């Protein structure tokens, strides 16, 4: 059976006044489905299909088909408004409170998620404190489809500026959300769920720095409220960074967009000192984070056999990764994993990214070519160029810091491995000068000890360097 079959054509046209808004859907039919839904959770007579506790654990096929049709129909604003007028959210509250059927819970949350796509309904749902708390409790559910629909609903609400703060405050005051989200990120293998939960976390951190700081500092055991069997469940002592890393590892191969989301979450953490410290002061000193990001840059993204245009596709995830690596490198230069003898491939990858940006199109990234001249005289920057400019800035900052740390031995190794040569060094200098003149000058002095001829050739190509030597 399809999880969400499309609704069939309705006979509403045959009954004047029965149509829902401008649709062909029947008010009477919708009313009958919702009435039957009430009977499912509060039967007048004992149900032979019920569990020993008295609640049905499975839907019969007809009811599932009909309620799935309502799920599809609820994407229409007229239907969503009709459901709102019929107090469907209150009915769904009863489902969440009484139902032992995961499929029914999933569908009801899914319908609410569709309804929340419309601003007025979203505001009504969001301002209902009881419903809000019950929905957050769904994050403790053990059913992955229900968790996915709950996350989708939360993301929809958080994306509505009029109600986003309501949900941020509600989540901030509900410590169980942190534990449940961390549990999902650290233990789920459902890629779709991990991506959606990651989008929720990303949105939360982007909206509210205070909440992000609280989650960074969090780590005490919490009793997270009722689990599926209504018994309190205590979750482990979660730390946010290991949970993010575990989720990123799960999605990296199957979902590039999901990887982008989790890398951006890490980047948001590095915008505050506490976040950087949470990464580099982990028990392993940040080694796991560095290793994952290093592998992504050096082994998976923007590789030598990729066409230069690949940098366009990967620009946002690369910017996030390099931003985190840059923050870690600047704060943990004494860590073994930041030793330059181990990071020559990373320098090679940074230069390759700069080369690809130069070759990916006719646009000059550093000049951010004008796409339109406004009446005020201000330049409107092409969005594509803007993101490439950000990537270039981050890439150059990290490269300049790493070049300053190179020794003669490191440089010789880079020359031997092919990461450093006249072409790559010229590309690096072209992008780093004049802003990072000191770094280039420092590297040139070391390079002169390792390869005098190469250093002389570079001085000829960049006369400004020769003047200062």
TrEMBL record:
Keywords: Nucleus. GO terms for cellular component: nucleoplasm. Its main location: nucleus. Transmembrane segments: none annotated. It is found in: Nucleus. InterPro entries: ARM-like, ARM-type_fold, Synovial_Prolif_Regulator. One of its GO terms (biological process) is positive regulation of synoviocyte proliferation. PANTHER family: PROTEIN SAAL1, SERUM AMYLOID A. Belongs to the SAAL1 family. This is Protein SAAL1. It comes from Lepidothrix coronata (blue-crowned manakin). The gene is SAAL1.
């Amino acid at each position: 059976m399809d999880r969400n079959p499309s609704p069939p054509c309705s006979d509403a046209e045959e009954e004047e006044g029965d149509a829902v808004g401008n649709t062909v859907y029947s008010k009477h039919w919708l009313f009958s489905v919702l009435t039957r839904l009430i009977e499912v959770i509060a039967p007048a007579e004992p149900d032979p299909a019920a569990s020993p506790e008295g609640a049905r654990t499975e839907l019969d096929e007809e009811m599932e088909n009909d309620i799935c049709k309502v799920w599809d129909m609820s994407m229409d604003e007229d239907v969503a408004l009709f459901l709102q007028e019929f107090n469907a959210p209150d009915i769904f509250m009863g489902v969440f409170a009484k139902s032992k059927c995961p499929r029914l819970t999933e569908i009801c949350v899914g319908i609410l998620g569709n309804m929340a796509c419309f601003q007025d309904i979203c505001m009504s749902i969001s301002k209902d404190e009881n419903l809000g708390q019950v929905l957050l409790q769904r994050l403790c559910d053990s059913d992955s489809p229900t968790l996915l629909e709950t996350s989708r609903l939360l993301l929809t609400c958080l994306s509505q500026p009029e109600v986003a703060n309501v949900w941020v405050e509600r989540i901030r005051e509900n410590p169980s959300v942190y534990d449940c989200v961390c549990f999902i990120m650290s233990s789920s293998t459902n890629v779709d769920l991990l991506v959606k939960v990651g989008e929720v976390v990303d949105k939360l951190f982007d909206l509210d720095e205070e909440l992000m700081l609280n989650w960074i500092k969090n780590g005490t055991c919490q009793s997270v409220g009722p689990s599926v069997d209504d018994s309190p469940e205590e979750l482990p002592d979660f730390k946010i960074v290991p949970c993010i890393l575990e989720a990123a590892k799960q999605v990296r191969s199957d979902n590039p967009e999901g990887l982008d989301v989790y890398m951006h979450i890490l980047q948001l953490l590095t915008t505050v000192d506490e976040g950087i410290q949470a990464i580099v002061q982990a028990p392993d000193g940040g080694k796991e984070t560095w290793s994952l990001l290093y592998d992504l840059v050096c082994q998976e993204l923007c590789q030598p056999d990729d066409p230069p245009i690949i940098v366009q596709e990967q620009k946002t995830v690369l910017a996030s990764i390099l931003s985190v690596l840059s923050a870690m490198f600047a704060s943990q230069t004494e860590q073994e994993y930041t030793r330059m003898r181990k990071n020559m491939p990373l320098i090679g990858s940074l230069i390759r990214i700069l080369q690809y940006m130069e070759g990916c199109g006719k646009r000059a990234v550093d000049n951010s070519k004008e796409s339109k001249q406004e009446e005020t005289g201000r330049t409107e920057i092409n969005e594509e160029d803007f993101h490439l400019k950000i990537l270039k800035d981050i890439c150059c900052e990290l490269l300049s810091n790493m070049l300053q740390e190179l020794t003669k031995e490191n440089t010789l190794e880079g020359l031997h491995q092919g990461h450093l040569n006249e072409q790559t060094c010229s590309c690096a200098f072209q992008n780093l000068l004049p802003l990072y003149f000191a770094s280039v000058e420092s590297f040139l002095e070391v390079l002169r000890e390792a390869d005098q001829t190469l250093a002389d050739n570079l001085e000829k190509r960049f006369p400004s360097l020769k003047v200062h030597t």
